[in-house]
Automatic annotation (TrEMBL):
Protein name: Crp/Fnr family transcriptional regulator
The keyword Zinc-finger is assigned to this record: no
Protein keywords: DNA-binding, Transcription, Transcription regulation
Highest taxon of the lineage: Bacteria
Keyword Membrane annotated: no
Domain (HTH crp-type): residue spans on this chain: 149-217
Length: 231
C-alpha cells in the first residue's frame, strides 16, 4: 500500500524530494498551516524573512514594486512550489512581495526550525541548494528574455509557461491582462495589443479575466521555443 498525502504532505515538494519519509514528516509537524484569501499578501518586500512558505493549494504572485507603484510580476507559484528559499540561508529582508491570486493554503516553516533540522539531517541543506539553483536558472532566463525577445514574444512565452501547468486539452489561464503585463514586463496597453493579435490569428481567445489557449504550438513558435519533439 502506498503512502497517502496525509501521511506524506510534502511528498510532492521538489525541495524535499531527496529526504526520506520520516524527515519530511518531521518538517510537516513543525510547519504552521496558513490560509490566505484571494488578494491577501503573504509577505512584503523589505520585511524580515523568517520562514519558508510551502504552497499546498491555490496560486501566488511574486512581484517587485517600483517607487512609482508599478508592479513587475516575477513568477506565479502553484503547488507544490515553495517561496522564500533565500530566507533559509540568510537573514536579509524579503527581496519581493507575494500575493494570493486565489484562495491559497500553505505551510510555513520557520528558519529557526529549519536550522535545527539541518544539524540532525545535512541532506536538508542539499535540498535547499538544489532549489536555489532552479531559482537562479529561472531568473537568468527572465533576464535573457528582456534582452532577446520583443514584447509579443515575452507575452507568448509567459502564456506558454502558464499553459504548461494545465495538462487538459482546453488550456484556461486565469490571469487578467494587467497581471499578464506585470509578468511580461510591458504596459497593459501593449500587452492588450499583443493579445489582440494572437486572438485574431486564432491562437487564443479571452473570456473575461480568463485566457483560453487554442493553439499552443503557435505560441511556442512565437516565443522562440524549439518545435516539440525536435532535436
Amino acid at each position: 500500500m502506498g503512502v497517502t498525502p496525509s501521511e506524506d504532505p510534502l511528498g510532492g515538494v521538489a525541495m524535499f524530494s531527496g529526504l526520506d519519509l520520516p524527515a519530511r514528516q518531521r518538517i510537516a509537524e513543525v510547519a504552521v498551516p496558513r490560509h490566505y484569501h484571494r488578494g491577501r499578501l503573504l509577505f512584503f518586500e523589505g520585511e524580515p524573512a523568517e520562514s519558508l512558505i510551502m504552497i499546498r493549494s491555490g496560486a501566488v504572485s511574486v512581484f517587485r514594486t517600483a517607487a512609482t507603484g508599478e508592479r513587475a510580476m516575477l513568477h506565479v507559484a502553484r503547488p507544490p512550489e515553495v517561496l522564500g528559499e533565500v530566507s533559509l540561508l540568510d537573514s536579509s529582508p524579503r527581496s519581493a512581495s507575494a500575493e494570493a491570486l486565489e484562495d491559497t493554503t500553505a505551510l510555513a516553516l520557520a528558519r529557526s526550525s529549519f536550522i535545527e533540522m539541518v544539524h540532525s539531517n545535512p541532506k536538508m541543506l542539499d535540498a535547499v541548494m538544489r532549489s536555489m539553483g532552479m531559482l537562479v536558472r529561472r531568473l537568468t532566463e527572465q533576464s535573457s528574455d528582456h534582452v532577446f525577445l520583443d514584447l509579443p514574444g515575452r507575452v507568448a512565452k509567459t502564456l506558454v509557461r502558464l499553459a504548461e501547468r494545465h495538462p487538459s486539452p482546453i488550456i484556461t489561464i486565469e490571469l487578467n491582462q494587467t497581471q499578464l503585463a506585470e509578468m511580461a514586463g510591458g504596459s497593459r496597453q501593449s500587452v492588450n495589443q499583443a493579445i489582440g493579435i494572437f486572438a485574431n490569428r486564432g491562437w487564443l481567445r479571452t473570456e473575461g479575466r480568463k485566457i483560453v489557449v487554442t493553439d499552443l504550438a503557435a505560441l511556442r513558435k512565437r516565443a522562440g521555443f524549439p518545435p516539440e519533439g525536435g532535436n
